[in-house]
Amino acid sequence: MPTTSAKLHRARAAKNDEFYTQYDDVKKECDNYLSHFFNKIIYCNCDTADSAFVKYFTELKAAGKIRDVWFSGGLGGDDFRCLASLERLKAADIVVTNPPFSLFGEFIDQLMQYNKKFLIIGNLNAISHKYMSDFIRDNKLWLGTRKLGAIYFITPGGETAGIPAGWYTNLAHNHHRKLVCVKKYAGNESQYPKYDNADAINVNRVKDIPADYYGIMGVPITFADRYDPNEFVWLGADYEFTKNGLRGYINNKCLYARVFIKRKI
Question: pTM for this structure?
Fold first, then answer.
């Protein structure tokens, strides 16, 4: 039988997962993928009939722009991991949904396992997890068309709450944001200190990535929003490259999550 602390943890996780995407946010992102959706079966496997995702794709179906929309999940619905949901997953063409943030790793692994096309919402911090970082490095997923930042979800109480999040996909789009680097490392070395536990320099802001440095750099996870595989090599999450397997430290102070990159020569 679960302990009281385990029950509380699960209850807290469930409460934190009860954030519902607003229709305008769904439409603004999904409208950029209409060519991918055309004549496809869209599966919203973490949604019920009244969700913004289902409403959006029901409208597309009525307009003859998709073949069908399926949904399951949410309160009283099928868990995305159950047999019925898996059967629908295998038969559908594209998954579009807002999965529970507490189960995001398991959810993305399932999509990869079944080689599914997808467009999903995830917490911003998911980028710093090894599984996500590796998928980005291997060009198996990338950021959606909208800039990383606060997405305003509807809470069970009907209020809105801004949560740092982003859209993640493996559907091609042409809305990539160009990173223009104007800062110089030469002559400004003191602004780019080396980590205590890694052979790399630290860059505190994406806009401060130096144009003339070709060694390893630790950059904020929001770099994913500007990442271009033609210009940079995505090496991985910080703790994959530190000498002690921890986050990056400078002067014995632990920094916020970083990803390690190198400029292509």
Answer: 0.88
